[in-house]
Structures are given as structure tokens and as C-alpha cells.
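Lecture 7 notes: from sequence to structure.
We start with the chain below.
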Amino acid sequence: MAAMILLALSTALAPGPVRAEADSISGRFDTGHSEVSFRIRHFMSRVRGRFDQWQGTLVADPSNMANGSVDVTIQSGSINTSHERRDNDLRSANFFLVDSFPIITFKSRRVEVRDSALRITGDPTIKNITREVVLEGLFLGSTGRPEPRQQRIGFTAATTIDRTHFGIVWNRAVEGGGLMLGDEVEIEVNIEAVRQ
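Predicted C-alpha cells for the same chain:
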């Protein structure tokens, strides 16, 4: 995720030719045109959900994209699977325990860029447990508008995590064998960022 932002900012959002002495560029995610979503197996199907309240900021060094950083903060209580009873359960001690752990964060650590393909290593923290993950994604383009505050970029990235590694372990045995929920959670971010 960080790499996509850095790549875009070093090209589409830079005010002029990139120079080694250029100042860092800061930006924010336009959450009205972005999404953080997930999927998990439930019985024989997959349930999709998202978080409705979150924000992200970035700092990019146009002369060296690997020196950039991105921070994302998610309100865990804003989880939304379009099913009120399930969402309330997800907010409970069975899952996210949002009264004690109201925030989920992601901080980038390492960025690798090859053409438009991106590999970002970072640390999500869920229920005060931090684990390294790798997101892979693609830069989707930019608006190229001349006014800095109108310059926007788009990107997508995805990863898969094991929810039990973050202390989310509740499950239930199913008659006939197996468990109600899968452990693997597919996470996808679709982002539109605007320069500040």
C-alpha cells in the first residue's frame, strides 16, 4: 500500500522534476472514494465486510520511494457486514472486543517497487498484537490536474492474514465435521489519495 502511494506521488503529484533535495510530500486518503474490505469463509460460502470509519496519511520522499511511510488508523467498531446481529457479535469479546481495543492500525516498514508492481511490508496491530504482513498491489493511475490539491492517485493492494495470530480465535464446530469460520481473512484496500 505504501509503495503505490510513493510511486504515484513521485510521478503524478510531484510539483516539478524530481530532485534529490526535494521536500517530502504529504497526502491523505480520500475515504469517501476508498474502501478497506475483507472476506472470510462462513460455512460453505464467503462473507464480505468493510470498515466504515478509518483514515490514512502518508509521507513520500520523491528522491527515494523506499524512504516513504504510510499510517492507517481504523475504528474497529465501524465493522460492517450488512448484518446487524453479526456485526454486534464481531464487536464483542468473541472477536474484536472493541470496548478494550477500539483501534486497528497499519504502519508500513519496507517498500519494493518493480515497474508498476508493488510489494509492501508492514505491521498491522489488532487487539494490541502486531504481526508482519506483505501486501501486493498495483498503481492504477492519476488525475494529472495542475492544482496540487486536486491531484489524485488510485491504487489497490491485498493480503491474507490468519486471524488467530491476532487473538481472534472464536469458532464453532459444525455438525458433520469442520468449523463454522475459516481462519484466513482476505484483506483488500482500494484507495484514492489526494495531495495535501
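Points to note: The first strand starts at residue 25 and ends at 29. The CA atoms of residues 7 and 115 lie 9 Å apart.
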